[in-house]
Amino acid sequence: MAESKDPMAPDGAVNPIDTDYKVGQDNIIVNVGPFGLDIHNRVFAISGLMVVAFVVLTLAFQNQVEPMFTAMRGWLTSHLDWFFISAGNIFVLVCLGLAISPLGKVRLGGTEATPDYSYLGWFSMLFAAGMGIGLMFFGVSEPLSHFGSALGGTAMEGGVRTDWAPLAAAAGDTEAATRLGMAATIYHWALHPWAIYAILALGLALFSFNKGLPLTVRSVFYPLLGERVWGWPGHLIDILAVLATLFGLATSLGYGAAQASAGLNHLFGVPLGNTTQVVLVIAITAIALASVVAGLDAGVKRLSEINMVLAVLLMVFVIAVGPTLDILSGFFANLGAYLQHLPALSNPVGREDVNYSQGWTAFYWAWWISWSPFVGMFIARVSRGRSVREFILAVLIVPSLACVLWMTVFGQTAILQVVRDGYQAATEAELPLQLFAMLEALPLAQITSFLAIILVVVFFVTSSDSGSLVIDVIAAGGKVDAPLPQRVFWCTFEGLVAIALILGGGLMALQAMAVSTGLPFTIVLLMSTVAVIKGLASEPRPA
Questions:
Q1: Under a CB-based contact definition with an 8 Å cutoff, are residues 201 and 376 in contact?
Q2: What is the C-alpha to C-alpha distance for residues 496 and 474, in angstroms, rounded to an integer?
Q3: Which of 76, 391, 396, 448 has the most CB atoms around its CB within 10 Å?
C-alpha cells in the first residue's frame, strides 16, 4: 500500500533549515486510562499554572485586584500609547513592502504548492477567526460613540483635552462628524489589525511549511536565535503566546456573553446577570467542544461558512430596509474619509486627542496583538499554497473592505437614525444593547435581533474552537495532530476561565491582562518582522 503523504511536507523547491530538533522531542507522553496526553512539559505546565493562579487570585481578592487592574490598564495605555501606535504602523508598512517586493513571489509550502481551500472557504475562515464578536459588539456602538463625541466638539481643562473626540472633532457639523466618526472607527478595524495578524501568520506558515520547523511561535525566531529557540528563550516566547491568546480570547468572550445575554433579555425577558452569562458560556463551550472534536475541516470550516452566510444575510437585510442609498454612497465616502484621516489617526506623537488615542487606539492595538498568536496560527494553518503577495493582499485588503462595509451598514444606519429621525434609543442604550436598539427601529426587529443573537453565539463558538486548536498546538510543542483530549481540555479551560472571570466581575481585569500580555508580545512581533524578512530572502521563488 502506498504511504500517505505528510500534509506539512513541501511541494517543489524550498530552503529548509538544518536542525537536529524533532517536533515533540521535549514532550511528555502520558496515558490516563483510555486518554493520551502529548504535551510540551514546560510550556504546558507553566502557562497552565499561571492562568489558574490568575483566575484564583482574581476571584479571591476581587475587591483589591480590580482597582489595581484598572490602574494598570490606564498606566500602560497612557504611557505607552506611542509604542503601540508606532508598532501598528511598522506592521502595515512591512506588509505592504513585502507585497510589492520580489519576496512576494515566494510560495508558502514550496514552489509547486497548491492551496488547500477555495477562496470562499479561505476568506470565511480568515474573517470569522479574526474579527468575530468584536464586529457584533462594536458595529453600532463605536461609530455612534465617535460621531457623538466629534459632534460635541473639544473640551479643555487645565490645558488638557478632556473630551473623547478623535483628532480635532467636528463641533456642530453633522456631515463632518459622521465622516470623522466613521474614519476613526474604520482605523481600528481595517489595515492595522490585519497587518498585525498577517506578519505573525506569514512567519508561522513560512517556517513551518517551507523551513520544516514545528508550527509554533518560537520557530519564527530561528534566524535570530538559532538553536537556542529550543531552549528557554523559545519556551518563554511560546508561554507568552499561550497567555496572550487565552486572555485576548477571554476579553472577547466576556463581550460576547454580555451582548448575547443583553439580547435575550431584550427579546425574551431573560433576566440579566451573571447566571445567564454563565449558562451561555457553558452552552457555547459545549457547542465549541463538538466542533473541536469534529476537527478543522468538518467543524471550524463549516461553522465559519455558516457564520459568513448569517452575517451577510443580516447585513443585506439592513441595507435593503435601511437607508439603502446612504449606505451604498457612505461606503465610498467612509473609505475616502479613512484614507484622508489615516496619517493623522496613526500619528504616534504630539496628539491632543489623548482620550481617543490612549483609551481607544492603544487598547485596541494591544488587544489585537494579544489575539495575534491565535489568529496568526489559524491563518497560517489554512493558507498553505498561497504566494506571499496573494497572502498579504488577501489578508489585508479583503477583510479590511469587509470591515468598512460592516461598520458603514450598522454604524451609519444608527447615526442616520439619530440625525434624521431623532431616534435616540441606540445612543441611550447600554453598550451590549446598542445593536438591538438600532435593529428595533427597522422592520422584522424580533427576527433580526434573534438572528443577531445566533450570530454572536456562532462567532463566540468559532473563536473558542479555533483558539483551543491553536493553544493546543503551541502547548504540544508544535504537534498539529496532538491527542484529542488535549484540545478538549483547552476548550473546556477557556470556558472555565471565562466563567471564573464573569463571576469575579473581572472584565476590567481581563482588559488589563489583554493589554499587559499584548505589551511583551508587541516586542516579540517587532522582532519577528526581521526574522520573516530574513527567512523569505533565503527561499527559492517559482519561475
A1: yes
A2: 20
A3: 391
pLDDT per residue as tens digits for the range 462-471 = 778 778 888 8
Task: Give the per-residue pLDDT at 307.
Answer: 79
The x, y and z cell numbers of residue 24, run together, are 515533540
Most distant CA pair in the chain: distance in Å?
80
H-type alpha helices, 295-362:
302-321, 324-345, 354
Strands 156-157 and 160-161: antiparallel
Span 111-163, pLDDT tens digits: 999 998 888 878 777 766 666 677 888 999 999 999 999 999 999 998 889 99
DSSP β-bridge partners for residue 37 = 30
Q: What is the CA radius of gyration of the chain?
A: 23
Taking residue 12's Cβ as centre, other Cβ atoms within 10 Å add up to: 13
Coil, strand, or helix at residue 168? coil
| 138-149 residue pLDDT tens | 999 999 999 999
Asked if 197 and 91 count as a contact pair (C-beta separation under 8 A), the reply is: no
d(C-alpha 339, C-alpha 281), whole Å: 39
Q: Which residue has the cell 530574513?
A: 534
Angle between helix axes 484-503 and 41-60 (nearest 10 degrees) is 20
Residue 410 contacts residue 317 (beta carbons within 8 Å): no
Of the pLDDT bands very low, low, confident and very high (cuts 50, 70, 90), residue 483 is: confident
Side chain identity at 498, as an amino acid letter?
A
Name 93's Cβ contacts closer than 8 Å, sequence gap at least 6.
none
| Neighbour count for residue 490 (Cβ, 10 Å) | 29
Cα 207-210-211 angle, rounded to 5 deg? 55
**How far is the C-alpha of 336 from the C-alpha of 537, rounded, in Å?**
35
pTM: predicted TM-score of the whole model, two decimal places: 0.91
> What are the cell numbers at 449?
435581533
Cα distances from 402 to residues 128, 299, 395, 398, in angstroms, run 11, 24, 11, 6
Residue 30, classed as helix, strand or coil, is: strand
CA gap 113, 505 in Å, rounded: 49
DSSP 40: E
Q: What are phi and psi of 35, to 5 degrees?
A: -95, 140
Rounded (5°) CA angle 475-480-482: 65
**SS3 of residue 354 by DSSP:** helix
* Per-position DSSP letters for 91-138, written without gaps between them: HHHHHHHHHHSGGGG-BTT-TT---SS-HHHHHHHHHHHHTHHHHHHH
> In angstroms, rounded to a whole number, what is the distance separating the alpha carbons of residues 105 and 101?
8
DSSP codes of every residue in 169-211? --TT-HHHHHHHHHHHHHHHHSHHHHHHHHHHHHHHHIIIIIT
Q: What distances in angstroms separate CA 478 from CA 418, 475, 525, one per listed residue?
A: 51, 7, 18
Condensed to tens digits (0 to 9), the pLDDT of residues 31-53 reads 776 677 888 889 989 998 988 88
Helix (H/G/I), strand (E/B), else coil: 477: coil
